[in-house]
Each structure stands twice: as C-alpha cells, then as structure tokens.
Amino acid sequence: MYSIIIVEDDSIQRDILKRMILSVCDFVKIYEADSEMSALEIILNNDINMFLIDISLKQSSGLDLAMKIRSISKYEFRQIIFLTTHMEYITQAFKQTHCYDYIVKPYDKNDVQAMLNKIILNETSDLNNKADNYSEEKDKEVVITLKNGVYVGIKVNDIIFIEVDGKNCDINTYNGVYTAYNISLKKILQLVDCNYIVQSHRAFAINTNYIYKIEKLDVKLSEVYFNECSKTAFLGYKFKNSIMSEFKKGKVIIC
Predict the structure, then answer these.
(1) CA atoms of 37 and 16, how far apart (whole Å)
(2) What is the DSSP letter of 206?
(3) d(C-alpha 35, C-alpha 184), whole Å
(4) Is the separation of the CB atoms in 48 and 20 below 8 Å?
(5) 3-state SS string over 19-80?
(6) Matching CATH topology for 3-136 and 140-248?
(7) Which fold has domain 3-136?
(8) Coiled-coil regions in this chain (predicted)?
(9) What's phi and psi for 80, nearest 5 deg?
(10) By the 8 A CB rule, do 57 and 9 touch?
(11) Domain residue spans in the chain?
(12) What's the CA gap between 179 and 167, in Å, rounded?
C-alpha cells in the first residue's frame, strides 16, 4: 500500500491536508506526526513513500528532519514535499534535501490534488509493475541438463548462489546442489535472466535477496554469507559497489 506521512504540529492544518489527500486517493495509508521525534519513530518502523513536512515545526526544523530522512538509505530518493508559509526557505530546502516540491499554506485543494495525481498515481503504477515483475521472476524456472542426460527444473527464487567449477557450474539451492555441465557462468546468467541474481566474482553469481553478511578478506576480495546456508561465495572488487548497494537497499545504516 502506498503510504504518506504528514509532519505538521498544527492539528487543524494536518486534518485539512489529510482530508484533501483522501478525497483524491482513498487507497493510501496516512501516518500523522506533530514533531520530529514522533515522525522519526514512524519513519524508522514503517515504509513511507511520500513525506509532507512542515518546514517550520515549533520544536525543530523541517529541514533538519528532511536531512535525517535522506540519510536513511531506503529514503534517499523518496518524495519530500515541504509545507510552508515562508517562501524564503524553499531555495535552501531544494539545495539541501533535493525535495520534490512545496505546498503553500493555506492549502489550495486544486493544487494539492493536482500534485497528488501527478505523483501518487504514477508511482503506484510503477510499484504495481515492479510487483508483477517480481512475482514472475519468483515463479520462473530454469531447466538444466545434469550428467547422464538427466533434466531438472530449478526455481530461480530457490537459487542461493552459482559457482564455476572448471567447465561446469554448481547451482547451490535450498534443495541441494545441481551441477550444470559444459556451461559458462555468463550463459547461466542469461538463462536465469533475473534482476536479483547477479555476478559477484569471476567465478560466482549470488542471489542478493539472501545475503546475510559481507566480510572483507583483503583489498580485492570479500566473502559473502547467506541466510540459513553454511556455504559462502566470493565478492570481487570489480563487483563490490553494485552488490553493496543492493545489500544496503531498504536497510537503516547505523555506521
């Protein structure tokens, strides 16, 4: 469900804006907060798609809150919209937080609804498309040829990692290890054709959804650990940035 948080210390203004949103998009989940502290508690414990923030909160600055939101990995590119009567702060807001837009108080219903239509309807359409794509990938199977002409179907979502073994590839899954003979890692990845199974090393491809821990071994090499799996894979320095980005996505980074 698409979710919005309204951070506004004036309960009347907050209620007005909430009713305007629901008149256009009654399918959204709306969280409410009257301070930075209460807002952060909601933000850290839920998945928020859009932030509507009063730029002049009584006990703190809406700009400061927006900067804290931007420091959270999964919210780095989410929509921040400021609520304001002080236009002199807007340029600063755009520069510091890369906010999407602003709404001037008192709220104009037509302006609010036009903005919501532009953002929410487009984003929910994108979210639905991504969900459909993930569902297709989750149910997808690949058929590989084992030794002695045995064929086996493997669900893509069951693959933990793939390891090159000479001219063969060992496909490690939660149901066991299957060896595909006389096939390259590149060819396996083409057959799998999945966004979350990616190459991590010249001899490994990993399922980024199952990563539990990444441990640095030396300057050029790290070891990847997986949930509920005793085996590990390697992560080479050429692939490190993209793998680390996927691993951190949607997580709160403490340090």
Answers:
(1) 22
(2) E
(3) 56
(4) no
(5) HHHHHHCCCCEEEEECCHHHHHHHHHHCCCCEEEEECCCCCCCHHHHHHHHHCCHHHCCCEE
(6) no
(7) Rossmann fold (3.40.50)
(8) none
(9) -115, 125
(10) yes
(11) 3-136, 140-248
(12) 10
C-beta of residue 111 within 8 angstroms of C-beta of residue 132: no
The pLDDT of residue 170 is 94
- Among 243, 134, 130, 140, smallest CA distance to 192 is for 140
**Residue in 8, 14, 79, 78 with CA at minimum distance from that of residue 38:** 8
Q: Hey, how many other C-beta atoms are within 10 angstroms of the C-beta on 223?
A: 13
> Tell me: the pLDDT tens digits for 80-117?
888 888 666 666 666 667 777 788 888 888 888 778 77
187 to 164, 191, 207, 224: CA distances (angstroms): 12, 6, 16, 22
Q: 61 with 13: CB under 8 angstroms?
A: no
* In contact, 178 and 188? CB cutoff 8 Å: no
Beta bridge partners of 79: 50
Query: Hunting for tokens 């609804």 — which residue is that?
Result: 113
Say if residue 79's pLDDT is above 60.
Answer: yes
Secondary structure class of 215 (helix, strand, coil): strand
One-letter amino acid of 43: I
What pLDDT does 94 receive? 66
User: What are 83's two structure tokens?
Assistant: 């609520």
Assigned CATH topology for domain 140-248: OB fold (Dihydrolipoamide Acetyltransferase, E2P) (2.40.50)
Helices of type H across 71-222: 90-97, 109-139, 185-192
